[in-house]
Anthranilate phosphoribosyltransferase
Amino acid sequence: MTVLALLPDPVSPLSRESAAAAFSDILDGRASEEAIASFLIGLTERGETSIEIAEAARALRARLIPISAPPGAIDVCGTGGDGHHTLNVSTAVSLVVAAAGVPVAKHGNRAASSKAGAADTLEALGLDMAAAGASAEASLAELGICFLFAANHHPAMARITPIRRRIGRRTIFNLMGPLANPAHVGRQLIGIARPDYVPVYAEALAQLGTEAAFVVSGAEGLDEISGAGPSVVTCVGSAQLPREVSPEDAGLPRHPVTAIHGGDPAYNALALRRLLLGDPGPYRDAVLLNAAAAFVLAGRAAQLAEGVSLAAGSIDSGAANDLLDRWIAFS
């Protein structure tokens, strides 16, 4: 009998040992679909602890297909599921930051709840997903950017995906993407769609030994630093930001979230290309704000305003747009 089958419905927090055993059972196929579904629903209804999040991430990390990354590589990734259906901010940020010389191992997937995930939009821009996956390590080394398509690196999730679909609601696995980057990056800007959960998630990152991270959430439940108002921030490790960040802190105006509503992959791809070609407006400002935080995280900027200048230079010089073209050609 598996450890998972012996556990009661998780109404009380699990010990580190029990959580580790339970997620090993789940990912190694030693538990029934019914037991997995009941367990995951129970965790969600009670609220996952930092220990449970960390142990789920450890189990997934132990079973992923890794790549090597250069020193200083970062990831910029949100958990998704915020319901705002915005344009692809973290994808654009990845290009802007990488074009300025900070290696970015972008971990992502196709859309689950939005109309266009990172993979969908990059594919619409002309990036061959299969080729980009096969050349991820090489493109990260040579271009300073890669896309780590989750399905290519997490074979253990194949059995879990249909169970998650059947459950039809958020589970702990919705939090796993940023915690299981196949490049094992030490620095991460992570957006989650639950402001009240930011400290719990940050504590999980600390338990996992993360070198430095900013865990952020817009007050309206946006899984990135919001351009519409204040965002809560918890810092892990060496890099620092204030506990609350607003666009004004970076010298940027506020825009309503509706101003960056996205559409299908073609729509989002066109918006991203126009952004890289210098279009002003709310999308640019959202990207500048989040890229500024990424530069602080990477140690390239001391404060947000300095990071905004670096991000604007990456766009306005044409470097970010050129990087996208070279990435497409490389794949």
About this structure: The chain has 15 helices and seven strands. The first strand starts at residue 74 and ends at 78. The mean pLDDT is 93. The beta strands are 74-78, 104-108, 145-149, 187-191, 212-218, 231-237, 244-245.
